[in-house]
Amino acid sequence: MSCDPERVTGYVDGALDEAQRAEVLAHLAACPACREQEASERSLRSRLQALPALEPRPGFEERLRRRLYRKAPWRLLVPVAAVVLLAVWVRGSPSFVAWELARDHRHCFSRETLPAEVWSGDPEVVARWFQGHGTELPAIPAAAAGLDLVGARFCGLPDASRVAHVYYSGEARHVSLYVVPRKVRGEAWWGAADGRVVRMLRTGGAQVGLVGDTRDDVSAFERALSTRVASGPAAGK
To answer: 118-119 and 174-179: which strand pairing?
Structure first.
């Protein structure tokens, strides 16, 4: 392939299929300019993910509302549209979603007691609980890699969305299974975020995120999840 900045960006985002990734990798090996683009984009994403959450000063929202009200709407149209498009692009980035999930995984498992809303090691019980709250799970396993299902809940993410979060725990090891209710660019993505291994995949009609301490644990759960989905419909249906 020749230089293609958009495909390099897709490679960094994990949005390419296996054949496309192989082509980009071969091109990067021979193209210093594209390697520089790849390094720059990875560095930018790392810096963005490391930014702390900022809280506006008291009264900021009200002052902003008054200032916007005084401006003519046509002056705001272009910047507002740009902000909306940027927000949509960021929310669909697998690396951004991975950071959100890894951050939530750490937050939940760092507590003395898991903040589960349903406690059970039975996949059907957990699936029915989510069904009762309007969310369908793929057919989840009861255990994998020596880690057992212990419970689940809904968790809020930094972008204000809400995801189904299923907890698996063992000997000082943990894996989280998330069902993400939004479109993520690229249906299969491996990466690291917030010191955890993250796998994004689409299975059983759902966008799923797996977060764990090691790639082996996450891979074991992917295999168990694929086996459960292939063997029949989601638990509880």
So the answer is: unpaired
* pLDDT at residue 146 tops 60: yes
Query: Could you tell me which residues come within 8 angstroms of residue 183 by beta carbon, excluding any fewer than 6 positions away?
Result: 92, 207
Say whether both 165 and 205 belong to one domain.
Answer: yes
65 domain residue, yes or no: yes
Same domain, 204 and 183: yes
Rounded CA-CA distance 191/24 in Å is 17
Q: Work out the pLDDT band at 45, boundaries 50, 70, 90.
A: confident
C-alpha distances out from residue 20 to 38, 98, 151, 166, 170, Å: 15, 21, 38, 32, 37
pLDDT in tens, 15-30: 778 888 899 899 999 9
Q: Count CA atoms closer than 13 A to 10's CA, side-chain side.
A: 19
Instruction: For residue 77, give its domain range.
Output: 60-91
Give the pLDDT band (50/70/90) at residue 54: low
pLDDT at 127: 96
Q: What is the rounded CA–CA span in Å between residue 89 and residue 67?
A: 27
Could you tell me if 176 and 218 are in contact, meaning their C-beta atoms sit under 8 angstroms apart? no
**What's the distance, CA 75 to chain centroid?**
35
Same domain, 120 and 20: no
Q: Where does residue 14 fall: left (phi above 0), alpha (psi -120 to 50 degrees), or beta otherwise? A: left
3-state secondary structure of 204: coil
